[in-house]
UniProtKB/TrEMBL annotation:
Superkingdom: Bacteria
UniProt xrefs under SUPFAM superfamilies: FMN-dependent nitroreductase-like (SSF55469)
Record-linked Gene3D superfamilies: NADH Oxidase
Keywords: Flavoprotein, FMN, NADP, Oxidoreductase
Domain Nitroreductase: 16-172
Protein name, as recorded: NADPH-dependent oxidoreductase
Length: 259
């Protein structure tokens, strides 16, 4: 497909997005922090519930603890580190102050829809912050690895009931220039009017994408061959979750995902 892309500074910032895992030392300015946090607040919020929060992690010992949870030492080196949190605790406190009984049958902030809604809002806020950081010439990496141990992360951050960690975001001045990672053909992700009726048409672009991904990893890891995209997906499809069950950790935080 011959792609004609419109270019402007915002689009080019997004098209050039890549994960940065090595940062130059030194803190970021207070004006940078204020800007990034304000931009995150401007992200869309379903029903205007503002049902997310973010923990800015500054203590070096706590950073090391999060790096251990994530299994990625570079987490501790990030000049600016956030954990975005689905947060119905604050709204519960607001509602209780207005006379709503959180233990009553009518209470819904602890249900599966609100849990999903709050997660969505947290991700939107994180993405807004990430994009703003890239526009300032900074680098970022989104940290799903922090969910390796949700209960440990909850304890480390002192998260109260009806909160749940969603993703982390490490930000700093880049100290590396990784190549752009390939993205699959648009025909495999964008469909018109309905999802493809047969898997053969859905996966028509997969062989070429497999080869592109394989070339990317061969160039990046010359001493260690990496599987093609489809092989990585197959491996992950049967990878053990090692106790990573959202239902159980969510229940520990007071959410009821069965309603």
């Amino acid at each position: 497909m011959n792609e004609q892309i419109i270019h402007n500074p915002v689009i080019d910032t997004l098209l050039d997005r890549r994960s940065i895992r090595a940062f130059k030392p030194g803190p970021l300015g207070d004006d940078v922090v204020a800007t990034l946090e304000r931009v995150a607040q401007q992200a869309p919020s379903s029903q205007y519930l503002n049902d997310w929060s973010a923990i800015r992690v500054a203590d070096p010992a706590l950073k090391e603890r999060l790096a251990a949870i994530g299994g990625q030492p570079y987490i501790a080196t990030a000049p600016l580190l956030y954990v975005f949190v689905a947060d119905e605790h604050r709204n519960t406190a607001i509602a209780a102050a207005k006379g709503v009984d959180p233990a009553g049958d009518a209470f819904t902030l602890d249900g599966s829809y609100r849990f999903s809604q709050a997660q969505n809002d947290a991700v939107l806020a994180l993405h807004a912050m990430e994009t703003a950081a890239y526009s300032l010439g900074l680098g970022c990496v989104v940290l799903g690895s922090l969910l390796n141990d949700v209960d440990g992360l909850v304890d480390a951050l002192g998260l109260p009931a009806l909160t749940y960690p969603v993703l982390g975001l490490a930000i700093g001045e880049p100290d590396q220039e990784p190549a752009l990672k390939p993205r699959m053909p648009r025909t495999m992700q964008f469909f018109e009017d309905a999802y493809p009726a047969d898997d053969a048409s859905l996966l028509a672009g997969l062989p070429a994408f497999d080869e592109e991904v394989h070339r990317y990893y061969d160039l990046r890891n010359t001493d260690r061959p990496v599987d093609a995209f489809s092989d990585q997906i197959a491996a992950n499809a049967v990878a053990p979750m090692n106790g990573r069950v959202v239902r159980d950790s969510a229940a520990r935080q007071g959410f009821h995902l069965d309603r």
